[in-house]
What we know:
Layout: E1 3-5, H1 15-21, H2 27-33, E2 38-49, H3 55-58, E3 65-75, E4 78-88, H4 107-111, E5 120-122, E6 126-130, H5 135-144, E7 151-160, E8 163-171, E9 196-198
Antiparallel strand pairs: 1-9, 2-3, 3-4, 4-8, 5-7, 6-7, 7-8
Amino acid sequence: MTTWLVRPARWLVPGAYASWLETPGSLTARLRAVSTSFRVLRLAEGWGRAHRDERDALAIAADEPVWLREVLLLCDEEPVVFAHSIVAAAELNGPWRSLRRQGSRPLGDSLFAGGHRHAVARSPLSFARLAPNHPLHRGAVRALGQPLPAMWARRGVHRRTGTPLVVTELFLPAVLSLTDVRAPSTELPSDTPTPRIDMP
């Protein structure tokens, strides 16, 4: 079982990762700003099943299908983020129907774009260090074709007209090599004890 932390203590997260985990607003925009070229490499898109620690966020049963999308975010052709997004299949004819046509366009551009008649609200982020046995960690390993250490990830639930879309972003080791002149001033808080979300 993976525990997603609402406010991980500062000592748990290496400083360089903390800055990326707490990126306010669009991660896509920040990655664009620190690279000469940025692109999305689509890995998978189609029907699937939510992982155990995603079902509560969508309020769905284990056997209920979802529409999923997995991509790598590349800065100067170097993979720096593995992203996994899911929405309940029943909602694909609703406010998230454009996801089926997302292709290789950055999802962040859609989520944080202004002017849409159905505004998107993101829940407070939650964070976890994903071990090699976590299915999303295994997905990142398959995508890169190489072993990876345990990795920090963040998760947000984006709601459009109340309908949830769950986005999980795993920060690959190469993200630490980016020179960031726009790092946010916010830091992961050091409050103890650490509030948490326990997923089934």
